[in-house]
Amino acid sequence: MGDARRVISDLRELAARTSTAAGAQRVAWGPTWREARAWFRAKVGELGLDVTTDAAGNNWVTLPGASTKSVLMGSHIDCVPNGGWLDGCFGVVAGIEALRSYAGGQRPPVTLRLVDWADEEGARFGRSLFGSSAAAGTLALDDVRGLKDRSGTALVDALRENGVELEGVGRAHAELRALDGRAYLEVHIEQGPVLEAAGKSTGVVIGTFGVERHMMRFTGQAAHSGSTPIAMRRDAFLAAAETALACRAIGLRHSKPGAGVVCTVGVVNVEPKIVTAVPGVCEISLDQRALDAAVLAAMNREAREASERAARANDVTVEWQHLWRIDPRPFDPALLALCAEAVTEETGEAPHLPSGPLHDAAEMALHMPTVMMFSSSSRGLSHCKEEDTPEPHLERTIRAFLKLVDKTVAHVAAG
Amino acid sequence: MGDARRVISDLRELAARTSTAAGAQRVAWGPTWREARAWFRAKVGELGLDVTTDAAGNNWVTLPGASTKSVLMGSHIDCVPNGGWLDGCFGVVAGIEALRSYAGGQRPPVTLRLVDWADEEGARFGRSLFGSSAAAGTLALDDVRGLKDRSGTALVDALRENGVELEGVGRAHAELRALDGRAYLEVHIEQGPVLEAAGKSTGVVIGTFGVERHMMRFTGQAAHSGSTPIAMRRDAFLAAAETALACRAIGLRHSKPGAGVVCTVGVVNVEPKIVTAVPGVCEISLDQRALDAAVLAAMNREAREASERAARANDVTVEWQHLWRIDPRPFDPALLALCAEAVTEETGEAPHLPSGPLHDAAEMALHMPTVMMFSSSSRGLSHCKEEDTPEPHLERTIRAFLKLVDKTVAHVAAG
Question: pTM of the predicted model, to two decimals?
């Protein structure tokens, strides 16, 4: 059995090497990220294992077993600028500990693989899940070929600086398919408040939410705030406000215990945006998420209807612009059962929750049975230096994850 | 009786001299404004009358009567950048026509005075009603001494370029008090859609709205759009949206036929303003207007209560910041009756409406009986080159205004 304390001390060591006073700085494709990966290589080297890099820049460690059938563990060592000490690297370092628990003993019945996905965050070029989507075969080169960072550096040049040729990243998909992966496991911090609020250290993740992301543009007529009677106004903002509130009501109506959905209006722009003018234009974003594809589709349809009702009621028009969508990725029932067993053995119960944020696991779920485990997040905070999890929660989650690896190895070997 | 057609052709002449393709450019204190005032001086000179300038830069024309008791007519020849051909100068040129109708005949029973107020718009330095508030004694020098325009020119220097010493503008108040003003009349375009929508050319203005202007800042907690269940959110935008809608409902509840009120949320700012984050902060402006001071106070109190209810319901806080307020200025009952008579004689009816925008008349109402008359505005537009009024509407309004002047002269002479 591995040592949960060692995982935590390794994470503290990594944070000390790759953070400033503002937080963690392991942004993909940059020097601090390369330093973090060198540290990873050294840690793995202590186990007598090598790191190999696929065509998309993902780093793989392989512990051969009696069978080529493979159990994969993965996460990402990259982070957002001024990020936390756990997001991503928690799963990578826990994976090292799982390898360590097998590397010292007899040859495992199946092959174990640990992957550090390249650029999960997309913090620099705006494309998240870069490495895992390349491996999953879902990365469209046309969508990313022109990307530049804020300083004007092209993605293609940043990749080349790290030994990755953009035009060749598709080969990572063939490499993945050749691995004979039978299960994918990922442990991560929740990055939300649910486990903490319930007083739980560890949760079984039932899948990643599907997402519908759109902009709505309401167009009415700007008018003088003093001279235009309320009844004669075509106020674009009030139409948007009604729509935003209706979308929340739609979300609450579709939420059931254990199957919550979310929706968010995060961006709001009004024009002409002056104190003495009725807004003639209002633009809002809508981000809707649910684990059930039919529920997500219904939420989206109802939001459109609500926006059209609000537009009519305020004598304005509304246009929708599609930004992005992804299907829900429910996780594998057999692995969910193993995950629940492992969490229950360690903590006495197994709270189930969906993942609102996306993870590399969502890409792997297209190709093999997949499951995730969450550790609680203090105050639900992530993507900031305040990101934290109580150490007893981390320890219990690491122990549960190591149990899950054992159970999955046995499951794949048996089946 | 004056000639309404001549007023319109004079306005066309003034527009041709002081406009570009983008609209009228008679911004106060600038060269085009001075050109417009030179044109005004020449027009008045044709009547054998002189222009005198008071300590605040207001231009006065006096037609002495048998009594020093004076009937004042006023408006402003300045406009916003890229403004329309009627806003302000309509009343000044109509006033010239009223003087012409007396200048040619026998000495009037009371003195007639026409004033072109300096810088009604405040377009360059942000302080509207500059000249009329100086004359009314309500201009606080401490509020304007430091004002600069966008290019960095100080108000004090722009005034000096026009022969006005800021520190001396208070003398304009003593000058006004010396005039023995017994009535103030102002004709203006509505700058709103009410008369047009009712199919009326001309309206009797019952007063200028009082205004309460505030910013509200809602503070909740920014959170990830995917990982934070709806029930655990502290969404500052949704609290603001509920408040904005509640404020409209409050306005509608306080509106009565003939005594409408208005309220506007014109500025909306959310933070962090990203698609994937629940807004942690939302700031909105609220501009409330009513003619009845008690109604305005009630609207404001109810808006505060609504904001506090919405804050509690969304687990956020709200803070109010006062921006500006002004009392309602209801007009004089006797002059309202004369105005209604004049409008009825000319148009067969006398629609009454309040003025949402402020006017120089609001300052004069503090010191003498005051009334305004409105001509319709096409599509309610103003402060833009599309500002317009059908010529038949202008003609009827000019004729009604000339009748109002006659009636007021007789009224003041009689009593």
Answer: 0.89
